[in-house]
Fold this sequence. Notes:
Layout: H1 3-13, H2 19-31, H3 33-41, H4 43-51, H5 53-64, H6 75-82, H7 86-92, H8 97-106, H9 115-119, E1 120-122, E2 127-129, E3 133-138, E4 146-152, E5 157-163, E6 169-173, E7 180-188, H10 194-200, E8 202-209
Helix pairs in contact: 1-4, 4-5
Amino acid sequence: MNETDQKLVEKYFSNLLTKEEEEEFEKRLKTDTEFLRTIFADKFVEANLRAHPINKALLILKRLGDDLFLDELPDEKKTELSSFTEEEIAHFFQHVPYLEEEAIARSNQNVSHSLLQTLVVLPENDLACPGRWLYFSLNNAIPYALELRILDNKEAVKASKIIESGTSDFEVDTLPMHPGRYYWNLRIAKTEDRTIQKKYGTATGSFWVQYHLLKK
């Protein structure tokens, strides 16, 4: 990110832009995917997200809606989608009751949350992921490795990765996934001490891939 853009982003997160500048900035976020990705990957923005964790992140999501992280699907993916029947697609979007309960509890302020659950700023729960990447951001990086798993509604693991210690922003590629309802699960990696695993607990959330197919 060049110096001019970095200053622009810093002003945005500090609420120092004029109304016109802010509207122009958000318009650019909708149309310039690479700029958007750079923002959420850049270390200086990580610090801003930690300073304004949930409120600012949710504000961005609400303002940009389904245009956030929007990518055009490649032709081979469109061909794959056309191979599914309506009945198959309907099954892909069915819920897993106990995972739904865990995901919903994440948004409930009246229940106690695990330490790890309180650290997850993004993704917003029940996110309709319109593009290729599902982005994660932690309020604070922790000095332990994390394990991220993505489950489909058959509870099959569709993706898994180890997040290095000290990492607060990362992503998972949803392109290999068929349309449907998915759940993410984040926990301390098994390579870490069990006492640490117990201390942090787990974090669970839900998201959709190709949600527009469900609405047809």
